[in-house]
Structure formats: structure tokens, C-alpha cells
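Subgroup meeting minutes
Present: P.N., E.W., G.H.
Scribe: E.W.

1. P.N. recapped why we're keeping a running log of single-chain structure predictions: easier to compare across weeks, and new members can see raw inputs and outputs side by side.
2. G.H. added today's entry (94 aa).
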Amino acid sequence: MNIKYTRTTLEKLVVVFEEIGYTVRFEKGNFQSGYCLVQSKKIAVINKFFDTKGRISVMLDILSKISFGPEDLSDKSIDFLNSIGRMYMVGELV
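Output recorded in log:
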């Protein structure tokens, strides 16, 4: 796994969420896991007090829990997920 915990990586993950139909919001709240997932409305609410690394980790955790396929993503997002070793979530594509 080759993840750089940067603002750019965070922005790319937000794009992935948008492509699969989820809205990402960074807000305060009492989340035991650091986030709240409202699946019926496709909203992911992430603790706004997390640093960039925490936000990225939580977003990757959320991606592993929701169902989506490569047909939902752009080629750029597929390449990004491949580059960080997360393509197993949507099937191996090379």
C-alpha cells in the first residue's frame, strides 16, 4: 500500500465518493468510529477535528464498507485506487 497522507489524496478520495454517489461532510459530532454513514441518503459525515491522515483513514474504511463497482468510477479514480492498493474493493483492473 502506497498512501501519501496529503491534502491532494484527501481531495481525490472526495472525488471517488462523489462518483459513487456519496456526499462527504466534515462536521463535529459524537462519532464512536470517527464517522457516521447515512446510507439511505448516501452521506458520509466525518469528524471535522481529524487531521488529514485521520480523514483519509476513515474514508478508506468507509469505502471498504460500501458497495460499488468499477463502472461507477472514472478511469482517473480507478488509477488512483490502484495506486494506493485499494482496487480490491471494486475488483482487480489493470
